[in-house]
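Hi everyone,

Forwarding the result from last night's run.
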Amino acid sequence: MNKIFRAKRTRAKINGTAERPRLSVHFSNQHITAQIVDDEKKVTLAYATTVGAKVSGTMTEKASKIGEEIAKKAKAKKIKKVVFDRGSKLYAGRMSALADAARKEGLEF
């Protein structure tokens, strides 16, 4: 239950717009999903996941690969700035690896 409350508390302060969409990240036990969302239009602008992809390595390595991939897809859609939505997760480990990889590719948040 606490996880749900933490996620809602984080999302209450974060809203994606057309100028600055929301980068939402989800971690499961085996896979990582990241998507860039425009909350005003309720549209997903870019999406990257390890599901169905042949990505090997630790979860931290997978997170950095997904961070690079989502940043490249955002560049293709001419998105430079996003709001980072970490949900209920702390900004450490896998989350920071994904964020650092996305920043390295040129995404600003």
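The beta strands are 22-27, 32-38, 43-49, 83-85.

Cheers,
N.
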